[in-house]
Amino acid sequence: MAAAVPLRSDFDAAQLRALAKRARDPDQTRRLLALAAIYDGSSRTEAAQIGCVTLQIVRDWVLRFNARGPEGLLTGRAPGAPPRLNEQHRQALQAIVEQGPIPAIHGVVRWRLVDLIQWLWEEYRISISKQTLSRELRALDYRKLSARPRHHAKSEAAVTAFKKTSPPVWRNLRKPRLAASP
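Above: the chain sequence. Below: its structure as tokens.
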């Protein structure tokens, strides 16, 4: 059986409990209290029961605490996948959107997401989803704008003739009050 990793000597149980009391992250509080129990002389198994975790996770907490102190016990976000588009791709995308499509070359009269996805594939061999491209374009301060659809046979004269001029539905509910007779 391997020896337990020792805790830092610049903290003690009382300090960790005080830090846990002030902590805003509930997971950090739980971790600090488990490590405070170890400082008090409890076994790692008891600390794991306090933290509701396994011994391996308590060991990971000890390593994080030894390396970065109490801040190492904060709940972090996973870094996620690296972005598909780098800065060069974003600049090229911005340039082609600003320039607009050339119908003879691009085969479209306005850019749609699927057209830009096709262009990215042909230029850079980058496969990207519509949602991701939409998010990237919104990050570049572009918004989807489209004209309101109109029927090709709509007659403006017929629309104005159809409109009815009726009195407003609302009424003024405040009636002048009559003076009270003495």
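The first helix runs from residue 13 to 22.
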